[in-house]
């Protein structure tokens, strides 16, 4: 029994550590959980949660590993920390663009927990842009800003972005915070168009557009603009190109302009992107120093191809005004577009082919070639004022179906192919060309057919008339005139007189010499009767119409027949 | 329609001396550009910059050959099918701005002529500004759509587009480190110049991608 008791107490003693809460950690230390990293500029913050409640004397340590490094390394600033977060900087990292792995574990005394790994990440991608440092200086109608890029100068996170930062600035009047103005500025820039003696407040944030990063706003800082300056600054700077010169103009109004002189300066525009002070890099524009008019003229050779900023200020004896608002000027955009050269050629009989060519002078200009050109072609008949305007991208095209024997005139000008930029050349020379008399074969054919038909009809009539004449003259008709009919009413007499068309001679028989005749005739009588009958019949066939004649011949026959008896 | 006479683009002298009697036309903005023709402009300006790079030095000095290094230009970023036009613009912008960053450092005054360097800086700035303007425009257009779609598309879009930008940054980071390690020696600059010519040529070939929609 005692042995049993002893064993029980031994077990209790042995089991005691398990029961006590402190002993709960023991050798099985639970690893931390939910490890997270947040990055602002160069400082990394690693946070995690304890697991299994709060326990005393537990510390945490972290390690990191990058590809190509081999083994895990201790993370400086995150060794044996008691809190559940630690920070370290990226300054000792080789590259912020490499994948990085982190792991954390808990420690107590000599025992350590398992490692808890944070999901791998690319520091640059996770990094947030911190607030930039802003310094202000006031003028009467403008505020000069001097913004330092986020992070430190030797920042590893933004090492490749020092010139990339664009700053978004929000400015408002202190008294009325409703009217806000947002502007995109460079690290050293000016906010214009402000009122004198007014307090303005602003905040700035840095942006990396291409990486889609928008930073945290800086704290608000305020400044009051100064009293209005004695001499105003020039305004509305304009620059234009003419022949081989540039003309720079500006506006200026002041009560006494007699002794006023002006000065203009230029700067390469890209320098603004580079952090630092470039105020010593402004250069004087030749012919624009101490000019008395509000314009000056200088040769185009002063500016090689590029983008420039221009500023102007006025001076009156010893006092000078503040610099005007800077005007950006791109030489490319000022180049003159030359008018094209047109050639017009007649194709067939009713089409004109237009070819547009570049003028010779433009061959050497690199300026306008940067932009694709389209052409506006104006096409009209020489005599009329009606025009046809066509926009063409091609340099060779045809106008078909034109009127024949008409003079057409063409002129064209080149335009930059852009929706928002109305830059064009002057019109080229007008070229005129005449179309040929059109479609001769067809027209003639139709005309020919018509005239042929017409003439045939005419000819037929003429011939008919002629024939009638001819037949009237040479082949008169047998019909007597109607007046004679009135005179002779008796038919037989009429017959005797008028029957000239009969061949009466054939019917003449010998009557008087009867002896010889009779014998002959007797012998022939029968024959003659026969003959008569036959002749009659034969004659009858020829002369059906003349009944009177037959009757006449019958009388003679009758006489003849009575005698021989 | 742009004509393809790229080989005749740009000449040595930037002076416009031989104008005839013509009046140029005034306009207000510095870039009244049409962003739909971005690919045309980019093509020309990249070619112009490529030529400027070539002209900076006569020929690659042979003694520097031994120091040359493979920078591993990430060719795959543009040859893959990019779903969004914005991502391509961003890639071009990233390239332009990193090249600009390299050439605005002051550490090579003895290597090349100031005049040539200045022209290149101006040319790179020009290349940048076109893209900046068009990216800004696009962002303004997307302002309304942003809130609606951003939730859905954020993650998927980020991984694809930002990956290519990351690759470009790693590439330029290698170039940067090379220059630092070699202490900006003459040979180091010449090697970097040759490498950037390759890079520009590669992007020049892919300007057509900017026009896809």
TrEMBL record, chain B:
Record-annotated membrane-spanning stretches: 22-41
Annotated family: Belongs to the alpha/beta interferon family.
GO molecular function: cytokine activity; cytokine receptor binding
UniProt KW Secreted keyword: yes
A GO biological process held by the record: defense response to virus
Keywords on record: Antiviral defense, Cytokine, Disulfide bond, Membrane, Secreted, Transmembrane, Transmembrane helix
The organism of origin for this protein: Camelus dromedarius
Record's subcellular location: Secreted
Annotated Acidic residues bias: 139-150
Signal peptide positions (record): none
Keyword Phosphoprotein among record annotations: no
Chain positions covered by the region annotation Disordered: 139-158
GO cellular component labels: extracellular space
Pfam families found in the cross-reference section: Interferon
Name of the protein in its database record: Interferon kappa
InterPro entries, A to Z: 4_helix_cytokine-like_core, Interferon_alpha/beta/delta
């Amino acid at each position: 029994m005692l042995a049993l008791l002893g064993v029980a107490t031994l077990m209790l003693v042995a089991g005691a550590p398990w029961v006590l809460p402190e002993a709960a950690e023991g050798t099985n230390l639970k690893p931390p959980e939910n490890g997270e990293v947040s990055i602002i500029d160069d400082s990394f913050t690693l946070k995690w949660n304890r697991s299994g409640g709060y326990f005393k004397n537990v510390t945490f340590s972290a390690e990191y590993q990058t590809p190509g490094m081999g083994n895990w390394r201790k993370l400086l600033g995150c060794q044996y920390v008691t809190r559940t977060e630690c920070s370290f900087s990226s300054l000792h990292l080789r590259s912020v663009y490499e994948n990085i792995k982190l792991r954390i574990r808990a420690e107590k005394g000599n025992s350590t927990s398992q490692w808890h790994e944070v999901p791998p990440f690319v520091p640059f991608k996770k990094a947030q842009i911190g607030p930039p440092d802003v310094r202000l200086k006031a003028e009467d109608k403008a505020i000069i800003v001097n913004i330092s890029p986020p992070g430190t100068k030797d920042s590893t996170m933004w090492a490749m972005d020092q010139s990339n930062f664009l700053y978004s600035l929000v400015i408002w009047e202190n008294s009325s915070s409703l009217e806000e103005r947002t502007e995109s500025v460079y690290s050293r820039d000016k906010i214009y168009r402000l009122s004198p003696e007014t307090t303005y407040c602003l905040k700035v944030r840095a942006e990396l557009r291409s990486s889609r990063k928008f930073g945290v706003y800086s704290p608000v800082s305020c400044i009051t603009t100064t009293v209005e300056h004695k001499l105003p600054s020039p305004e509305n700077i304009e620059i234009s190109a003419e022949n081989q010169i540039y003309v720079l103009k500006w506006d200026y109004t002041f009560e006494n302009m007699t002794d006023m002189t002006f000065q203009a300066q230029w700067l390469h525009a890209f320098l603004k992107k580079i952090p630092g002070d470039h105020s010593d890099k402004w250069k004087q524009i030749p012919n624009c120093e101490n000019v008395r008019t509000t314009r000056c003229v200088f040769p185009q050779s002063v500016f090689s191809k590029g983008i420039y900023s221009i500023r102007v200020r006025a001076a009156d004896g010893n006092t000078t005004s503040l610099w005007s608002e800077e005007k950006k000027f791109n030489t490319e955009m000022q180049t003159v577009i030359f008018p094209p050269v047109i050639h017009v050629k007649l194709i067939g009989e009713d089409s004109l082919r237009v070819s547009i060519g570049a003028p010779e002078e433009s061959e050497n200009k690199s300026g306008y070639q940067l932009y694709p050109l389209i052409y506006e072609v104006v096409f009209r008949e020489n005599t009329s004022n009606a025009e046809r305007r066509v926009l063409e991208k091609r340099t060779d095209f045809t106008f078909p179906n034109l009127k024949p024997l008409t003079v057409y005139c063409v002129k064209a000008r080149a335009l930059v192919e852009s929706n928002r930029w109305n830059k064009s050349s002057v019109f080229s020379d007008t070229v005129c060309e005449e179309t040929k008399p059109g479609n001769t074969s067809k027209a003639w054919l139709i005309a020919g057919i018509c005239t042929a038909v017409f003439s045939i009809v005419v000819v037929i009539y003429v011939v008919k008339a002629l024939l009638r004449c001819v037949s009237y003259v040479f082949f008169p008709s047998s019909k007597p005139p109607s007046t004679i009919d009135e005179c002779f009413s008796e038919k037989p007499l009429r017959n005797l007189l008028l029957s000239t068309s009969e061949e009466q001679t054939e019917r003449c028989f010998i009557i008087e010499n009867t002896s010889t005749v009779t014998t002959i005739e007797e012998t022939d009588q029968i024959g003659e009767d026969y003959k008569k009958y036959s002749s009659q019949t034969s004659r009858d066939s020829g002369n059906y119409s003349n009944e009177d004649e037959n009757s006449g011949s019958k009388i003679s026959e009758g006489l003849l027949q009575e005698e021989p008896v | 329609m742009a004509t393809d006479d790229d080989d005749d683009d740009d000449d040595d002298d930037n002076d416009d001396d031989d104008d005839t009697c013509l009046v140029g036309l005034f306009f207000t903005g510095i870039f009244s550009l049409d962003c739909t023709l971005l690919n045309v402009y980019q093509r020309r300006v990249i070619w112009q910059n490529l030529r400027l790079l070539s002209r900076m030095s006569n020929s690659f000095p042979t003694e520097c050959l031994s120091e040359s290094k493979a920078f591993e230009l990430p060719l795959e970023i543009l040859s893959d099918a990019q779903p969004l036009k914005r991502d391509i613009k961003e890639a071009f912008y990233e390239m332009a701005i990193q090249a600009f960053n390299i050439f605005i450092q002051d550490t090579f005054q003895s290597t090349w002529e100031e005049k040539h360097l200045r022209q290149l800086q101006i040319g790179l700035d020009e290349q940048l500004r076109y893209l900046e303007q068009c990216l800004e425009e696009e962002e303004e257009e997307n302002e309304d759509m942003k809130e609606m779609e951003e939730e859905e598309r954020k993650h998927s879009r980020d991984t694809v587009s930002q990956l290519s930008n990351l690759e470009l940054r790693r590439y330029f980071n290698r170039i940067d480190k090379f220059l630092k390690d070699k202490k900006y020696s003459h040979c180091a600059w010449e090697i970097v110049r040759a490498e950037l010519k390759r890079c520009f040529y590669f992007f020049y070939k892919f300007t057509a991608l900017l026009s896809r929609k």
